[in-house]
Write a structure and sequence with these properties.
The complex is a heterodimer. Chain A is an alpha/beta fold. Chain A contains 22 helices and 20 strands. In chain A, helix 1 packs across helix 2. The longest helix of chain A is centred in the N-terminal third of the chain and has 15 residues. Chain B is α+β, with helices and mostly antiparallel strands. Chain B contains four helices and nine strands. The longest helix of chain B is centred in the middle third of the chain and has 13 residues. Chain B is elongated, with a radius of gyration of 19 Å. Classes of the chains: A alpha/beta, B alpha+beta. The interface between A and B is medium-sized, with 17 and 19 residues.
Chain lengths: 547, 165
């Protein structure tokens, strides 16, 4: 026995592990199989935020982690509790969000016998986790937690699951949290290969029309700040994927907007006419790729922490595997040695011609134009705001019209999980209460998550909710209109409640915006509110995202 | 195209499921898979024969490397590896036919491992192609049952897929 170790139950050790990792807030939902751990939470000063459905514990942890950049924690019980987390785990996995998930499991001896609330959660979640542990040996607790946090929060970030059987939680161990961790089969790459860095610099110098495509990976470490520096020092225009929104402030003259199927014209033209593309922390998913199909005639410098992403969706001429912060530092070091700074005046002038956008048109009485609304919201939001968009038309309108001066844009980019925005906003606000956090959802997604208003109220988490209401599952309706000759099926949301009355029932302030005047009034009231606030925005029922 | 991939993994419960699951969900086709412990009891070696083009192979290697329990991945080049597979074949065989079958075995380096009135069980280890030929030679007698271990392989010469290298 180690002299510095302390005798305690595994359940107690689990709370000690969390504290050692600096975890002070966790999101969860209890149940019988995780009760020993909850009993220790009762004794600890870790704050437990009770969600109203387990999936939202996962989304809240995701929102939290995206603000802090460190692994956040969610908890559920065995069986259905754990299974309900899977969508959130998969959502975090697709967007590379660091997360540690703790689930209760039936007694070790009962595993495999289909007892009450038993589910093989490590097996079921396997395709969506970076790694998982079934904690079978009580004495492995400290080691497993240390490794789980290390794996989740390094390399390409991702969710790590720890499944803890009931009897293991109650077992007694001598506990000591390790200070260091070493996993021989996991050595996340750090610096970029020197030779490839040189090739990237050569490509940059030779480029007449260079372009940076900013991805979500830039939000790890100092990636976003260094990318701005790299772009500004070399006069390189910047476009963004949806996950990369906010990495470049949209009021920068170098910024041309989001690429892809729903992106800005200027950004898509830029991608299609550049001669050298720097992909920074972007995996270029299929929705983003649609902007640059059939392009083979340009040089691609792809920088990513995950070697499996390089060459997967787009061929890379210069592949650089490494931590985005370190690689950008390496590149900037070379740039600092340039005899004179690079300029691309002509190329930018060419791109500037495409900037003009059509102004959103005013709507008839009783409605607000969604694009105008987001642009107006943007003007009123404080600089340090987090906007969490849900999935559907609301996501496209928000992504395309929000400017993000010094804030963050969060959304379920890879998985497109409806019902993400409200719980993720709760997580983001918990991570940093000084931020203004606004969830923007549609009337479809809102009805998947409106139960979480209770969570916000119960724990005093002052989030703002905007429900863009058009009485349709608008995105699917658009697909049916376009590809199925307008045979609309299962897209009408008839039967929905009065959302303001829902807010009323929860006892939170609310307002209906059905004209430009009431929209502005609503935005002002919402931002001033020191309680959660619901703003329902009536938009024309047949408004489209693609014009 | 067939590729022989040698994978060193931590000898934990669930590792094989992770590797097999990865192949299934990424749509990689496995021809054979053989697993066993190495000289280090904490490490197992999985030998996989998979089908796919250059892009698929690259993705297989990269995705395998992402699994935390995978220590090392190496695709063995066909010209510089020794590969073997063990096969057990139970063939119908009357007492009269025995000499013929014994002579086929001798010529092919097979070995009779069990014998009964009307059948013999033969074991033979060779590369996959030779085993297929051997199987064809025995088919006319009536194959009752076959089991194959899947290919295992090592690099020729001094090179090794080991923890050190």
């Amino acid at each position: 026995m180690n002299l510095s170790s302390v005798h305690m139950t595994v359940a107690r050790a689990m709370t000690e592990c969390l504290k050692a990792e600096g975890i002070m807030d966790i999101f969860g939902y209890p149940g019988a199989a995780i009760c020993p751990f909850y009993d220790e939470l009762y004794r600890s000063d870790i704050r437990h935020i009770l969600v109203r459905h387990e999936v939202n514990a996962g989304h809240a942890a995701s929102g939290f982690a995206r603000i802090t950049g460190k692994p956040a924690v969610c908890v559920a019980t065995s069986g259905p509790g754990a299974l309900n987390l899977i969508t959130a785990i998969a959502t975090a996995y697709m967007d590379s969000v660091p997360m540690v998930i703790i689930t209760g499991q039936v007694d070790s001896e009962q595993i495999g016998r289909d007892v009450f609330q038993e589910a093989d959660i490590t097996g079921s979640a396997e395709p969506f986790v970076k790694h998982s542990y079934l904690l079978k040996r009580p004495q492995d607790t400290a080691d497993v937690f240390k490794k789980a946090f290390y794996i989740a929060g390094t390399g390409r970030r991702g969710p790590v699951l720890i499944d803890v059987p009931f009897d293991v939680q109650k077992a007694e161990i001598d506990f000591e949290y390790p200070e260091t961790v070493d996993i021989r089969s996991y050595r996340p790459s750090t610096k970029g290969n020197g030779y490839q860095i040189k090739r990237a610099i050569t490509a940059l110098k030779e480029a007449e029309k260079p372009l940076i495509c900013a991805g979500g990976g830039l939000f790890t470490g100092n990636g976003a700040r260094l990318m701005r520096e790299f772009a500004e020092k070399n006069d390189i225009p910047v476009v963004s994927t949806m996950m990369g929104l906010g990495a470049m402030p949209s009021d920068s003259p170098l910024y041309y907007g989001m690429i892809g199927m729903h992106g800005k014209k200027a950004a898509n033209i830029a991608v299609n006419s550049c001669d050298t593309l720097f992909l920074l922390g972007a995996r270029v998913g299929d929705r983003a790729m649609s902007a640059m199909e059939n392009r083979k005639d340009f040089t691609v410098v792809h920088i990513d922490i995950d070697p499996a992403e390089i060459g997967k969706n787009i061929e890379a001429n210069v592949p650089i595997v490494g931590d985005i912060t370190l690689v950008l530092e390496q590149l900037l070091e070379q740039v600092d040695g340039f005899d004179e700074p690079l300029t691309h005046t002509e190329w930018r002038a060419e791109l500037d011609k495409n900037r003009a956008e059509t102004e959103p048109k005013p709507e008839a009485d009783g409605y607000v134009n969604p694009k105008w609304f987001i642009q107006t919201l943007d003007k009123y939001l404080p600089e340090r705001s987090v906007v969490v968009a849900d999935v559907g038309q609301n996501q496209i309108w928000t992504a395309a019209n929000i400017s993000l001066k010094d804030g963050r844009f969060l959304t379920s980019g890879g998985m497109g999980t409806m019902g993400y925005s409200v719980p993720a906003a709760i997580g983001a606000k918990t991570a940093d209460p000084s931020l203004e956090v606004v969830a923007v959802c549609g009337d479809g997604s809102f009805q998947m998550e409106m139960n979480e208003i209770a969570t916000a109220i119960q724990h005093g988490i002052n989030i703002k909710i905007i429900v863009i209401r058009n009485r349709f599952l608008g995105m699917v309706r658009e697909v049916q209109e376009k590809a199925y000759d307008s045979r609309l099926i299962a897209v009408s949301l008839d039967g929905s409640p009065d959302f303001c009355k829902i807010a009323e029932a929860y006892g939170i302030p609310h307002m209906l915006a059905d004209s430009e005047k009431t929209a502005v009034e609503g935005i002002e009231k919402m931002i001033k509110s020191d309680k959660p606030f619901l703003l329902e925005v009536a938009v024309p029922e047949h408004e489209k995202t693609i014009l | 195209m067939k590729h022989t991939i040698s994978v060193l993994v931590e000898n934990h419960a669930g590792v094989l499921a992770r590797v097999a699951g990865l192949f299934a969900r990424r749509g990689f086709n496995i021809d054979s898979l053989a697993v066993g412990v190495t000289d280090d009891e904490n490490v197992s070696r999985i030998t996989i024969v998979a089908d796919g083009n250059k892009y698929t192979l690259e993705q297989i290697e990269k995705q395998l490397n992402k699994l935390i329990d995978v220590i090392k991945v190496k695709t063995l080049s066909p010209d510089s590896m020794v590969s073997r597979e063990l096969i057990l074949i139970k063939v119908s065989c009357t007492p009269k036919q025995r000499p013929e079958i014994i002579s086929i075995c001798e010529l092919s380096r097979g070995k009779i491992s069990d014998i009964s009135t009307n059948s013999v069980t033969i074991e033979i280890s060779d590369n996959a192609q030779n085993l297929n030929n051997f199987e064809e030679l025995l088919r006319p007698y009536g194959i009752k049952e076959i089991v194959r271990t899947g290919t295992i392989a090592l690099q020729k010469g001094e090179q090794a897929v080991s923890l050190k290298g």
